[in-house]
Amino acid sequence: MKKFLIKELKTDNLLRELNDIEYDRSYAAQMSDKFRYKNYKIFGLTAAQANILKQLALSVGADCATPRNTITGMIDSADCILGGSISQLQKISVKLGIQPFGLRKLGRQIEQCIANDNANSETKIMGILNVSPDSFSDGGLYENFEDAVKHLHKLIDDGADIIDIGAESTKPFSKPVSPAKQLHKLIPVLDYIRDNKIDIPVSIDTRSAKVAAKCLDAGATAINDVSGLTFDDKMAEILADYECPVVIQHSKGDPEIMQINPVYSNLMDEIFTDLDNKISYALSKGIKKENIIIDPGIGFGKTRENNFEIIRRIGELKTLDYPVLIGLSRKSLLNMPDADNDTKDIFSVALNAIAVENKVDIIRVHNVKLHRMLLDMLS
To answer: Which of 152, 198, 199, 291 is deepest in the core (most CB within 10 A)?
Structure first.
């Protein structure tokens, strides 16, 4: 008997595969949703909510994993894993619309997760301009104003969509830099950009509300706060007043202590819930939803293994429904402390390719030219 030939499909373009086997084209789009499977972790349901969700999942041929004692009602809170095809999940979301206990909202959120997954995303490149003397990769290279301006033009010419300027190193074990020292380096560059009518969005990498306000007054358009609004209690209110974009990052402690034995019970869950809490805080302070960008904080209180897990699973953060930024360029996860920056850039591009394939919205990089070539190649 002839051997059957079997190939696993590893593609998001199931519609094309259906067309290739000459499936009925009038129904191909709906059928493709039956072959695309998703698993969603849902946090903090009541026992009643979890039981209803499980029954609805089973009713459409999907399933929902719940804690053992959910059926008895002897738990106050249940984290669940809902799994099924896109078609099944859509049916579940519709059925949730007529359920009690606030489950209509859950149905809408599941619908939004599916919509976000189907949305097209064009990755932007954020070029790094460090004007600090001790940044981990290029400290001191652009501390001089003339060198900073020259590198600014190179980043733009190489294809940067955004420029991120920082005057405070936040590498492991670094100490805070005073607002006055940061502004001494930042303001001349911002004045140059304004005076020469250079039309490119500029983000300022700072944890200081004073620095943020002064730089926004000088023409900066966004703030990148690696502390996630926790270092300076005035930061959130300043950013709300200026109505500017802000990158909110996850970090396990300040740079002075973050790399001292960082431990997680569930890495991605802790990053996910921490970012969700920081988003809620930002919204409560008046920062608009459309101005929030999130960053898992590669290298900020993470082991090398943690960093690689984040890169592989970066797509999970998209379900928070905010643009995702990742900054892994030349960082220690590459494990090449003695390599030159050209070598580090090659491996940074390789890892960022994974992020781009997972629809990350912004990649923060040192070598813009190489990453622009990557995006052009993948487009």
So the answer is: 152
